[in-house]
Here is the input.
Amino acid sequence: MPTGSCLCQAVKYDDHSLATQKHLKLTQYIQAVCHCLTCRKLSSGSSANLLIPENHFRITSGSPKTYSMTHESGMNLTTRFCENCGSLLYKTGDREGFEGAVIVLAGTLDNTEDFEKAKPEAEFFVKHRVGWWPGLGFATQLKEFE
Here is the structure.
């Protein structure tokens, strides 16, 4: 079962829908790298993300703090982070395609093998990708979210 946590381990999460499966099947999620200006500010660069159904995701320890903002696309975006260490764990948005989903930062996965399996299928907001990032040739390139 995939699990994740913040840097100090105060906030932990899992995907309880996979609790009975022997092997992680990350292919059921949308995996993407986002180059939007919001992700750049939040993570000091592009952000590797897993988009999973909200009803599969649960906090198993701790209570993350929230911060809400208007994303450059116009959607309301709420981030969840650890109050103690400041690690950004996940985001939710009200834009079509994001409703009912949790955007988990792939770097918060506890198992490095799970992170390795989170190969991005797409790159969002490539219009903001920095020139020294060559892009992922195997991933769909999208100007924004569409």
